[in-house]
Structure formats: structure tokens, C-alpha cells
Amino acid sequence: MKNTAVIFRKQISDTLKNKTVLIQFLMFPVLVVIFENAVKIEDMPEHFFVKLFAAVFVGMAPLTCMSAIISEEKEKNTLRVLMMSNVKPAEYLAGTGVYVFLMCMAGTAVFAAVGGYSGAGLARFIAVMSAGIILSELTGAVIGIMCRNQMTATSVTVPVMMILSFLPMLSMFNDTIRSAAQVTYSQQISELINGIGVSDVSAGSLAVIAGNLALAVILFIAAYRKKGLE
Amino acid sequence: MGYSIMTDGITKSFGENKVLDGIELKISGGEIFGLLGPSGAGKTTLIKILTGQLRQDSGAAFIGGIDSRRLSGEDRRRFGITMDNFGVYERLSCYENLKVTAGIYGVGKAEIGKVLGKVGLSDAAKTPAGKLSKGMTVRLKLARAFMSDPDILFLDEPTSGLDPVSADGIHRLILSEKERGKTIFLTTHTMAEAEKLCDNTALLNEGRIVEYGAPEAICRRYDHQRMLKIHLTDGTDIELPHSRNSAGTIAELIGSGRAETIHTTEPDLETVFMELTGKELSA
Question: Which residues, in sequence order, are CB contacts of B73 under 8 Å at separation 6+?
Fold first, then answer.
């Protein structure tokens, strides 16, 4: 627990100096404030940009940040220094994971405020975003663990991130894409957010998210067993 | 057991390539031990095995009496390591870098200032580690290794690529740790560094220790090459064997006023290594 807190504090110290990670945390929360206030189109659904960008944010920020942080520490051998100082891999991953989660939840708070959610709608929004962030973090951690350096991690992260974050957006305009995207958690996150105040949480969405979570956990364990954190 | 570091027949191969072959070492407490060898001789592999980063194929290594394959967290606190490829958090300041290590070891923040002072980085405490010179980065890595006040220090090529002034500063730091009773395991391919710092050295070549002992003792063992170098007044040099047979010639040169200076030429570790392996240490 002590080492997890040390890693968490280290990541906090690094936040303002790490532009790659900082921009991921800020970009969509800032964009949503600007777009919601600046873009007014007739017949546009209420809080259209909140719903659109929240799903993109979930598919992009946690995934990119986890893979970037882990792969950078591997490339620069600072991770090995931590392991030699008796930081356990689980402690490192917990410290980093909690940091990314809380930073993304701060972004979620911005989305929630701009979207004007309250009561049960707010609780659902936060729960759905939390689930999406955790899933994306696991996916990002798998990439970070499997890749030897930042360049390799980026080349893997970008296509995965684009699929997860842009499918929900494209599926708004194309039914075929929407059908195909149903198997991804980011599409279900998007649909659950769009359904706030409109429809109940569907068992199908929960099943897909649970399935994606099980798959992410299996991949994470397999990646960790194969590569560890060295 | 009684030794700070002891190895018993360490062998390690990577595929078909045997990197270490039957390494036997006995290093006493408070000693600076130097492992010398050219690049690729197996020095870093041995340090990795000693510090539990790598498993040997056979044999055993003991650090403070504990098998290196069974080092616990508390055991690791007792030794500090700097390796050439160990990184620092480049965006964080020197102070923040050490704060991470201090947090892990449960060391008070007051200690960070003391350690920064010890390695001469007090003025750079707020400087991002990525903006430090190479010499200062080595000092920061040493500071990190010092944070838990370990009994044993493993320093892998600590002065590699440093200018002579920076290297001298690192040497002084190493010697001051020895004065505090620390055991220091040093790898280097610089013969002068080993001669300056080490109580004992081992010459490693192709995974085998080809010579072991105090640097002066090793050199004395290869004293058969000792010569007398005579610089003459006409600007030329002549070399004569350091033996009774040369006495007449020397007397004649001095008597005629032709000899300006006379020096003995003794073998150094570089010469010894060359004689043993046919290779240069710095290769």
C-alpha cells in the first residue's frame, strides 16, 4: 500500500510535465466545454457533444495514458529500478491505474457538469464512465506490458484507440458500423450514455461490457505472465 | 561464510553463448572489489545475477550470506545498485527523483537533502534530471543507490563516458563510501580506475576469471617483463632488462655523462591482461 501511494504521488508530480499524458486528460473535457457553448445547430440532440465526446474520451484517454506511462518506464529502465527497490508489479500497476482512473474521473466530472446530469442520471453516467475507463486502462496496460518501448506502444495504441473511440461516433451515421460495433464496450458505453433519461440499462449492454471486461482481464493476465514488467 | 559477497561456480549461458563459466569470488566487508574486463566479458551479467535480476544456470551467489535467488525486500534494502542503463525520471527534479526512492524505503525527507549534499547536487535539487550533464546524472543515480544507506554497493561502469574531472569526483565519492565501511562491487574496463580504487580485482575474459588479487600483487606476479628505460642526453631512449647483466652498461652510460634519466617500467593491469588474453582491456 505504501509503495502504491509512492507511485501514485510520483505520477501526480509528473502530470503537468508530461505533455503526452496531460493532453489526453484535458483535450476532450476542454473540447466539450467549447463545443457545447459555441456550436448550436437546429435539431441537434440535447448535449450532443457531451454524449459524443464522453465515449471518445473513455476509449482514448485511459488507454493511451496507461500504455504511454508503462512503455516509457520500460524503455527508460526506471521500472527496473522500482522493481529492484522492492516495488511489486501489482503495486506499480495499482498506483498508476488509480492515478489514471482519478484523472479521467476528473474529466468525467467536467462532462457531467456540462451535461447537466443529476440524481439517478448522474449516478448512471458516473458508473458507465467508470466501467469504460477501467476497461480502457486494462487494454492500455496490456499494450504497455507487451511493447518494449514507447514507439512500438504508440504504433499499437493508435489503431486500437481509434477503433474503440471512433466506432461509437461513426456508428451514429452508419447502421452497418453500428451493428459491427455492438461487440465493443465503447459502443455500449456510448449507447448507455445516450440512453440516460430515455431508456433503462439493457442486459445486452451489460453482458457485452462484462464480456469485454473478462477478455481484457484474460489478456492482461496473459500479457503479464508472458512479459512481466521487465 | 564471513564474506559480504561470495560466488560458487556461477555459470550462465544465453543460448549457445556461455557468458559466465565457473565464477568464484570472495569479497570481504569494507572492500572495494573491481571486476575488470572488456565489453562483452560478462561483467554486467554477473552483477545482474548477484543482485537477483537474472538467474544463473548453475552455481550459487551469496550477498551478505543470503542466496541471491532468495533476496527479500528487506534484503534488497541492504544493497544499492547503479547500472549504466538504469534511468532517472527526466521530467522530475533531482529532489523529486530521490523523493520516490525515499518513499519506497521509508526514509525521511531530511535524508534527501543530506544525500544530495553528499553527491554534490544540492544546487541542482530543483533541476529536472533530464537537464543534468552525464556526470551529474551519474551522481543522481549514486544518490539513489545511497538513499537506503546500504551496506553493499554494486556500481556497473560508474564512470563510463565521463570526462576525467567528473570521473575523479565519482572516484572520491566511492572512496568516501569505503571509508564508511561499505562494500563496493565495481565493474570497469578502465585499468587505471581499478588500480586507483580497488583493494582486489578480478580480470574477466570470455566468462572466466583469468587473474585475481590486489592490483599491485597481480602486477608483481607479471614482473618478469620489468625493464629499465634510460633517456640519453642525445634525446634517444634505450631499454635494458632489469637484471645484473645491465649493470655494466648503466655504469658506463652514467660515467660518460650520457644517461639523463633512468626509470623502471613495471607492468600494469592493462599489460597483464594483454599478456593473459592477447586483448586490450579497453577493447
Answer: A86
- For chain A, the domain total comes to 1
Q: Note the pTM of the prediction, 2 decimals.
A: 0.82
DSSP H helices, A147-184, are 150-170, 175-181
The DSSP code sequence of B38-93 is: -TTSSHHHHHHHHTTSS--SEEEEEETTEEGGG--HHHHHTEEEE-TT----TTSB
The C-alpha cell of A176 is what? 452497418
* Nine cell digits for residue B171: 572516484
Residues of B in contact with A149 (CB under 8 A): none
Distance (Å, whole) CA B55 – CA B46? 10
- List CB contacts (< 8 A) between A76 and chain B: 87-88, 90
Assembly ipTM: 0.83
User: Could you report the per-residue pLDDT of B166-217, keeping only the tens digit for each?
Assistant: 888 889 999 999 999 999 999 988 888 888 899 999 988 888 998 899 888 8
What whole-number distance in Å separates Cα of residue A72 and Cα of residue A182? 33
**Are B92 and A76 inside 8 Å of each other by CB?**
no
State the residue range of the domain holding A20.
2-227
